[in-house]
Amino acid sequence: MLDLIVELGLVIGIIATAIYVAEARPISRAIGGFILFSVLIAILYLYINCPYLAGAQIAIYSGAVTGLFLLAMSITKPETPEDEAKARSWVIAGYLIAGFVIFIAFFLTMHYYMYTPGISTEIVDTVVNRANIALMDLEKILSDYLWNYRGIDVLMQGVIVIAVAAGLANFFKREKEGKVK
Amino acid sequence: MTALPIQVYLALSLSILAIGAYILAVKRNILRIILGIELMISGANLTFIIVSYWLGNGSVDPLIRSIVIISMGIASLVAALSIALVIMIYRKFGTRDIRKLRKLKW
To answer: Does residue B72 lie in a domain region?
Structure first.
C-alpha cells in the first residue's frame, strides 16, 4: 500500500511540475519547477533501482542545465509579456542553494544505502533479490559498460566546455566592440 | 516490480512528451521552448528505462542505463548550444520573443 501511495505521488508530482514548467510566470519560476521535475524523475529512477541514473539526472539536469538557464535568464532582460514580473537575485540564489543542498543530501543518502556494510535497506535488498546478483557485481557490470563509453563522455564534455567558452568569448568580444563604437 | 502497472508509467512518459510538444507549439519565450525540449528528452529517457524495466522483470539492462546517461549528456550539450544561440539572438535582435524573429525567414 505504501509503494502504491509513493508511486502515485511521484507520477502526479512529475505531471504537475511539468505543467508548472509550461505555465509558470515569470520564467524563473518555470526554471524552479524544472529543478523539482528533475528531482522527482531522479527519485523515480532511484525507486526502480537505477541509482546511477538518478545521480546523473540530478547532476546534469538539476545542476548543469539549470545553471545554464539561470545564466541565460540573468543576462537577457525579460521583456516579453509573460516575463513582466522581474526576477530577483535572491530567488536565483535560493534556487542554487536549494539545488546544492538537495544534491548533497541525495548523494549522502545514496552512499549510505549502498556502501554501509550490514545495513538492510529496501533498495539493496530489492536489487539483490530481484536481479539475483550481488550488488558489487552489478556495479562492476555497469562500470564495465560505462568504461566502454568513456571516450564519448569525455568528448561530449569537451564539446560542452568549448561551446560555453566560445559563447562567453564571443559575448565579451561583442561587449568590447560596443564600447568602442 | 512496481505497484502501478507499466501502462501508467508509459502514459506518464507520453504525457511529458505531450507537455513538451505543447510548449514547443504554443509558447513564445525561447528559454521556455528550450525547457520544453529538455522535458521531451526526459520523457524519452523515462520511456527507455520503463520499457527496459518491464522487459527485464524488475531490472534495467545496463546497456540501457548507459544509453540514457549518454542521452543526458547530449541533452546538456543541446541546452548549452541553444542557450548560446539565445544569448546571441538577444544581442542581435534584443528580444527573447520567437515571434519577433521573423527577420530570420528568407
So the answer is: yes
- For residue B42, give every residue at least 6 positions away whose Cβ sits within 8 Å of its Cβ, in sequence order, or none: A37, A38, A41, A61, B16, B75
CATH code for the domain in which residue B33 is found: 1.10.287.3510
- Chain A contacts in chain B segment 16-75 (CB below 8 A): 16, 19-20, 22-23, 27-29, 31-32, 34-36, 38-39, 42, 46, 49-50, 53, 57-60, 62-63, 65-66, 68-70, 72-75
pTM: 0.64
Number of domains chain B is built from: 1
User: Is B99 domain-assigned?
Assistant: no
Query: Which residue range forms the structural domain that includes residue B46?
Result: 6-94
Q: Which residues pair with B97 in a beta bridge?
A: B29
Taking CB atoms and an 8 Å limit, are B83 and A146 in contact across chains?
A: no
- Could you say which DSSP state residue A87 is in? P
Question: Average pLDDT, whole number, for chain A?
Answer: 74
Phi and psi, residue B21, nearest 5°: -65, -35
The complex scores an ipTM of: 0.91
